[in-house]
Amino acid sequence: MGFGQRSLLAREYELPKRPIFHLDGWSIIQGTDVAAYVSSSVTDGVMYGTNGCIGTRHHCESETAVVRTSVYMNGVYHSAPVNTYIDSEAFLEEVQLGATVCEVILDCIIDGESGTLRSSPVRRLDMRDATYSSSCSGVISGDGGLMFEAYYRRVVSLNDLNLWSAEVVYSNFSLNPLATELAVDSSNTFGYSAGYSGKDDCNSELQAYSVEFMATLVVCLDEWDLVRGDSMDEVLLRSLSSSVTVSTVTQTSCLVETSDSEYKIIPEHEIQRKAGDMYASSHEYPTSLVDPTNENESDCSAMPGLPWCGEIPAVRRVCLRKRFVYTVTSDSIPQKVTLSFHARHRNGGAVSRIFPSLSDTVTKQRALLEEFWSTLYIDMQQQDEMSPNRLRLALLFNSFRLFCVSRNLQCGLPRAGCSATRESLQYDLQQYIYHGIYYTLTSPGSALALLRSLYAMLPHARKNAHRLSLEHGAVFPRNTIAGDECRRHCNLSNTGLHLNAEIGRLINMFFSAVGTIESNDRLMLLELMLETARVWPQVGEWIENDGAFRLENIAGPDEYNADASGNFYIYLSAKLHLRSALNLYEQQRPVIGEDGVSALLKKIGMRHEELEAFETISNRIVVRRDDHLGVYMVHDHFDTLREWRDERPKHPFSMNYHPLAIYRHKVVDIPEVLLAMLLYPEEFEEKDFLRNLAYYAPICAFDSPESLGIVAAVDFRAHRQFARGMPFLRSLISLDLDNVIYTAGEGLNFGAMSSAWMAIVIGIGGVKITSRNLHLDPCFPVGLNVVTFTLRWRGATLCTTINKDSITYSLVSGESIRFVHADKYRIHLHDGHRNCAARQRVTIPQSVSCGHREFDGAVFLCESLFDNSVKMNFFSWYRILESLYENHRALHMRDIPALTAEEFIRKVIYQAEHCGIAFSGVHNVLLDRGIDLDLGSPDDAEIVETRYGLANAKVAEMEDTVSSTTPRVTPAFQALLRDLAESDISLAIVSYSRSLKTLMRYNQDSAAYFHACIDGEEAYERNIKSRPHLDIFVRAVEKIHVDPARCIVFSSHLDKNFIASELAQFRMVFDVEDLFVTEVMGKTAGDYPVHKAEQGDGGRPLVLRLARERIPTTIDALEDILCDPVTFAGASSRADEGVFAKEI
Fold first, then answer.
1. Would you say domain 857-865+968-1136 falls under CATH 3.40.50.2300?
2. What is the secondary structure of 74-135 as a DSSP string?
3. CA distance 1055 to 366
4. In a designed cystine with 360, which of 59, 130, 356, 761 is the match (CB 3.0 to 4.6 A)?
5. Using an 8 Å Cβ cutoff, are 701 and 649 in contact?
6. Nearest to 176 by CA among 213, 139, 150
7. Are the C-beta atoms of residues 700 and 660 closer than 8 Å to each other?
């Protein structure tokens, strides 16, 4: 892809070169090559299990065979007091923090010690049945005398929301007598090994090990009151701070299978109460130890998932344990031992004691997920994707996770989806707009459940409104678990009133997208709509002079602009919210009936006069646009703020700078104007997308990952095939799988998952929902191979597939679907609607170039854009080779001549490569000096004496040179690039060097023009042949979706070895003068090939020499050259006093 639109203010979301996880069929596995340096918390979070009610997070062990799992529950929390020092209702008295219900440990103790792992376990998550498994190929005793394998499997039921099960299968037991004999003979004071039986004779027949298979349930007594817990079979917990109760019922068994029988071991029960415990998580500590309002990023105690900075106090814990003891001897070696554990947890109420087998649970889930995957699919393939299926894996994983949590949406969706505790178990209602759009268009039933969770929160929202001195209505909290706000706010401005409008937008979309809605649900949604809308008249005021209704000092979702008047997002969303509420009321009156509507109005205390005022106020809310800039301002005074001109900022802003410092600068986190354009596209023109994107993308900090999706989606809508939003979208899609911003300890980011889907479907798919119709207007950004997604609309499922040639719509399920393509073509797909012939698929060709312009694309060799890049390359190689020569001079006591400029040009620049990149030129230089180095690999360190080792050292040297000299693109090329981009010409940049991105980093203005790039790293990975082959240019043309015959190429050093037939596939190839070569070698005659077929046409050239002083600066000048290349070539030839073309 291109370089994206990174700015000085933007937070880095760079994807690692190697993915952490891989797709194996429908399973996610951790890559073995990254396991050594990737934190186990990343894998723990990705591989966790949930059904939206229970979350089980396995804690990776790489040394022992212990299996430890933390259990979280949706809606289960502790209350933490807040020290406000002032007695005021404006301050919170306490906040709700998600609780860890318990920890479950399954272990195998061999003679008092946990079994040791010989290698790291292989961990796998199957997205077909939601099972997690971990396979350990070798578990050994302390003395090495006993060895076996362990296979762990865990599943959280998607049907029974209180249930989860796990089992460990120990198999392939073997005894190693030699290990025991060695242990006995070693220098042990007492002469015994860990597995010694205690008898004088230590031969293999008497070798014995006491193996304890244990299941332990651990509860923190600093947070929980153990109301009932005589054994781990039944436990009742009550929170010491919130009085929330959790009932837990477990069933544990240990089945031994031998060659001729199988039997269950009778367990031994044990209860231990202690301060501190060997199984305690280093990052989980009592709520009382942490200030819940501390948002300082540098304070580890405020960051869930990070180690406690100071001394960890002793934590009181109770361990409820079952031991299954078995003695392994040569006469009683089992074939298999299965330790099974089943548990049910419930927040209040009785719990069933009947447990299905783990296999039965898995079978039911496989059927459920097969149905899910049959109607939901999303895929996106990039052309420069080095790791196969990297994006597909991330998209499937996100869809899988969003499905799992959807099983319990009626209780709300925690921020991290039950993958972590504390703040991560709170509901972030600001993310609900992304969740609501996702579920409305993929699973309407889940969207309704999400709206029901908001309705269940309505009594608390009414209380919140009363606390704000509002007479009626509802104000929803931003962060909550039980319905009370868990974020500080001192006034009306930052209470999150924009959530009301977003809830109204979701209700409006739901009525449009769903065909059949039950009467009770209609009443519920209408009540929710009216209660959220009636807040706006109370928080605004009339301006008598101009009759406008103002909503002053009310903040939108962007916290970096939270204290200013005239917020654009608030004005627009409130205006449309009031209008939609009145329209919905009028639409539902005949459907629900007058009696039902009257009863509802009476229930909420609303009069008809209040409803009629909705229209008046909506019409008098004025949304202003800056006429001078043609953009919508975040708030009334945004254009008067200072630009951020200090050093590169620290992220996130909110944890590194005082709020007043942020408010004084022109910076945004969530770009509210762009978000409004995505939510209410019918209110804007196409030019609004272009202008506002150009204004807000450079000043976006991207501290909230969702902002990546917003900017990417608007970019796709504004620039279509020329969009540069893919780097943003890639980072957002893989945010959790690749731990892009190192937040694995805080759990998964479900807001990022939903917003990434929205960016694809609304941005690339061009999906737009009106009151009556579904609209699609897909685009196909450069750098993609294919985009596929499904969505639900009024009982039918539509699959959209986009590639460079066509757009295909397919009816996957349902009888009929109607939609509008490109805002003008109405399409009806059906399976035989009213005796008509079935029409379940339609393919629409992509619009192609009209052919009236001279060319559609251009590819630039990076080195041709700079006056001195080849010279910098020479000096970088010179210094690296001199370091090598110095070593060889001292070692072999002989003279080794230094690299000369003429030699570098002749042997390195003009060296022909007949395969991939092999540094043959440098190799020949070394051979001339009696030094023969192997090629090596790209991973060779700079000090390794291989050609790749030297090349890596040269890349580092080049980076130092570039950073000190900051070379700039030639002004003529800068002007040409700008004009080509403004004329909608697809542009790509290529280089055989890995310094391409370094050079472009110091030329951001030029880098923004390119839609695709290929550097030396990608050339190596894809085995792209080096010069004189043109493979790198052909590959670049494919990336920008242009026919080579309609593409021009700007390169250098084309006067030797190139083949006419390869050059002829392009519209024209320019050989840009290299000033360094001219300085060293002088101006030489061009020796370029021509086609034999074109000799009759006066020898029309395939290559034109382009002197630096003759570089065209406009597309008009370039087209003039293409129209009459012979004249231009002749002029160039006379200027160089040479011959311009030669047949080969």
1. no
2. EEEEEEEE---SS--TTS-SEEEEEEEEEEEEEEEEETTEEPEESSPPEEEEETTTTEEEEE
3. 63
4. 356
5. yes
6. 139
7. no
SS3 for 1030? Answer: coil
Q: Which secondary structure element, helix H or strand E, spans residue 456, and what is its range? A: helix 444-456
Q: Are 1050 and 1118 in contact (CB under 8 A)?
A: no
DSSP 764: I
Three-state DSSP at 1135 gives: helix
Assign domain 51-137+147-167+208-355 to its CATH architecture: Distorted Sandwich (2.70)
**Core vs surface per residue 919-937: b (16+ CB within 10 A) or e:** bbbbbebbeebebebebbe
Asked whether 672 and 569 are in contact (CB, 8 A), the reply is yes
Amino acid at 196: Y
- The residue count of the chain comes to 1144
Tokens, residue 118: 């010989």
Per-residue DSSP letter, 25? T
Exposed (0-12), middle (13-18) or buried (19+): which is 293, by Cβ within 10 Å?
middle
CB count within 10 Å of CB 897 equals: 9
Q: What is the pLDDT of residue 1099?
A: 57
CA dihedral 350→354→360→364, nearest 10 degrees, is: -30
SS3 746: helix
Alpha-helical (H) ranges within 817-946 are 869-892, 901-903, 920-927
How many Å apart are CA 624 and CA 637, to the nearest integer?
A: 12
Residue range 385-414, pLDDT digits in tens? 778 899 999 999 999 999 999 999 999 999
- Considering only CA atoms, which of 54, 64, 62 is closest in space to residue 109? 64
CB 227 within 8 A of CB 236: yes
CB of 603 within 8 A of CB of 455?
A: no
Q: For strand 116-117 and strand 131-140, is the pairing parallel, antiparallel, or unpaired?
A: antiparallel
Question: What's the CA gap between 1122 and 1069, in Å, rounded?
Answer: 10
Could you give the C-alpha distances from 111 to 178, 266, 270, 326, 329, in angstroms and in order? Answer: 18, 19, 18, 11, 13
What region does 742 belong to: left with phi over 0, alpha with psi -120 to 50, or beta?
left
Report DSSP letters for 584-601, one per residue: HHHHHHHHH-HHHHHHHH
C-alpha 140: how far from its chain's center? Answer: 39
pLDDT, tens digit, 9 for 90 and up, residues 680-691: 999 999 999 999
Classified as helix, coil or strand, 991 is coil
Dihedral (C-alpha) 813, 818, 823, 826: value to the nearest 10 degrees?
120
What is the bridge-based pairing of β-strands 796-802 and 784-793? antiparallel
Place of tokens 């194996």: 24
Find out whether 1054 and 1088 touch, Cβ atoms under 8 Å.
yes
Residue 610, classified by CB atoms within 10 Å of its CB into exposed (0-12), middle (13-18) or buried (19+), is middle
pLDDT, position 30: 86
Q: What are the residues whose beta carbons fall under 8 Å from the beta carbon of 80, sequence distance 6 or more?
A: 94, 95, 96, 97, 241, 287, 288, 290, 292
Residue spans of the chain under pLDDT 50 = 182-204, 277-312, 490-491, 1093-1098, 1137-1144
CB 966, CB 998: distance < 8 Å: no
What does the CA dihedral 741, 747, 751, 752 come to, rounded to 10 degrees? 30
